[in-house]
Structures are given as structure tokens and as C-alpha cells.
Amino acid sequence: MTPSRTRISKAVIPAAGLGTRFLPATKATPKEMLPVVDKPAIQYVVEEAVSAGLSDVLMVTGRNKRPLEDHFDRNYELEEALRRKKDESRLARVQESSDLATMHYVRQGDPRGLGHAVLCAAPHVGDQPFAVLLGDDLIDPRDPLLSRMIQTQELHGGSVVALMEVDPAQIHLYGCAAVKGTDADDVVRVTDLVEKPDAADAPSNYAIIGRYVLDPAVFEVLSKTEPGRGGEIQLTDALQTLAGDETVGGPVHGVVFQGRRYDTGDRGDYLRAIVRLACEREDLGPDFRAWLHHYVTEEM
Ligand code: G1P
């Protein structure tokens, strides 16, 4: 496989999920819009794509996801009201999300799984490698992952997944990869993949976290991938096909991430993300940390 020479520029963000773990908050509000401190979770993900040089973002949405489109669009009425009040700093905050990236939207229609969501991106992506970012995974902006994955894809061609070592008791929540080492400490070659295995059957404790850089050959494979775990078309299964036959779309590598990641689709981790990011904010941090310290030492 010839390593890719074209700069990757497109990011795909599947965002059609129902967010049942956060009901009733997500009854009428998309889970992606839940705030992490004062920004919706999805904005962190778009910012991450943009920081890695991907300014063309396609969101794969579904019913009841209109607020996502509105969030990344202009809101002239609100902007005008803030302008009249001379509230420049809030005006800038409001404009930030609409100026971030070139946004595109496609609807998934039937919710047939992550692999199906990615397949919906095929007409937009065309024949270039592209990135996929899952909205539930929040990668701390100080621990860049995607740019390292893009670098790895440019070097080796094929596809690249993000991996993290997890407690074996947790592996059933993730796609799991069997790997072998490469010359680079943080890069492995993926030899086998299985979606959400039982701990006893897992080939390793390397979990796929929600970042992928994919060869466009994945579309052809996905269109032929039968429903797998949970009756859904699984991206992991398509990647397994790619890892097993390099003539189709090149090898699959993994970048092993050791930074900070929060699963904002999990209520406990969502709260941890908010507390940690709030503590570290220059504006909110000092007061919040003092309160938190008092709360933990005196009131718990
Ligand atoms: C999806 C993927 C899984 C991956 C996970 C990362 O699962 O299917 O392979 O490990 O994202 O967050 P989900 O969490 O959407 O069920």
C-alpha cells in the first residue's frame, strides 16, 4: 500500500445516537448539546478536529438533532442583542462556534449502527482518507491524539485507530485490538479486532477509543459488512476485514493514547470531566477549587 500523499482535511462526527443514558435530560435535547462547563460537549470535539487541521466537518445526525445545526450556525438576533449591550466577550464566545469549521450535515435515517453512520458519509468524503471522531469521547485538548494519528496514517497508509489500555474488566465496553509492536513506542500494528468481547475472549486489553483515521476503502467494506454485535453494522468489523487483508485498504495501525480522556456518554465520567475542566479554567478555577477543597475536606 502506498502511503497517502494528500493532506487529510475531512472529519466525520457520528451524532445520531439517542443518549438514553442521560434521560430525561436528553428527551428533547441532543446528548451532544449537554454542557461540559459552559460549552456543549460536541463543540470540544469539533475544536479537536480543527486543531488537527480538519476544517471540513460532516455530522451524521438524525431526528431531534436540529440544535446541533443551530449551535454551529450564526444567531443574528443574539449577536445583535449582545452588540447593543456592548458585551464583546460573550459576543466572541457566541461567534466562536459558528466560525470554527465548514459544517455539513447528513441524516442517518435508520439507526443501524456506527458502521452504517460512517457509510452515510461516503458521498461527502469521496476517495480521500478521513477522520472519524465519536462525540462521547472527549480528549483533553492538552493531550493531542488526532494529529499523531494523521501523522501515522501519512507514514504507513491504510487506517489508524486510537487505542487505550483499560482494566480487563472494562474491555466488554469497547472494540478490542490484538496488536504487535512497531519501531515507534506509541504505535502498534493491529492484527485482529473484535467488538465488545467478553473479558474471557478478549485478545488484549487494548480498547478502541473514539478516534479513527480511515482509508476510503472502508466504505466498500462497510457496504458488505453484515450486522454484528447488537444487530448493528459495526465499524470494528469492517476494520477487522481491512486488518486481515492488506490488499483491500492497507494495514491498520493503532496509536496508543496515554493522555486524559473522558467518556461524556457515561454519567460518572461526564461529571469528572466537568469538575476537572472547571478546576483548570483560569476564570472559574480558583474559586471552584477552593469550594471543592472545602466540600471534600469539611462536608463529605
Ligand atoms: C463505539 C465502538 C467501539 C469503541 C467505542 C469507543 O462503541 O463501536 O468499538 O470502542 O465506540 O467509545 P459505543 O460506545 O458507541 O457503543
Automatic annotation (TrEMBL):
Protein name per its UniProtKB record: UTP--glucose-1-phosphate uridylyltransferase
Nucleotidyl transferase domain ranges (all copies): 10-274
Keyword Nucleotidyltransferase: yes
Transferase keyword on record: yes
Keyword terms of this UniProt record: Nucleotidyltransferase, Transferase
One MF term in the entry's GO annotations: UTP:glucose-1-phosphate uridylyltransferase activity
Source organism: Streptomyces zagrosensis
GO-annotated biological processes: UDP-alpha-D-glucose metabolic process
InterPro entries per the UniProt record, alphabetical: GalU_uridylyltTrfase_bac/arc, NTP_transferase_dom, Nucleotide-diphossugar_trans
EC number(s) recorded for this UniProt protein: 2.7.7.9
Similarity remark: Belongs to the UDPGP type 2 family.
Domain of life: Bacteria
Reactions mediated catalytically: alpha-D-glucose 1-phosphate + UTP + H(+) = UDP-alpha-D-glucose + diphosphate
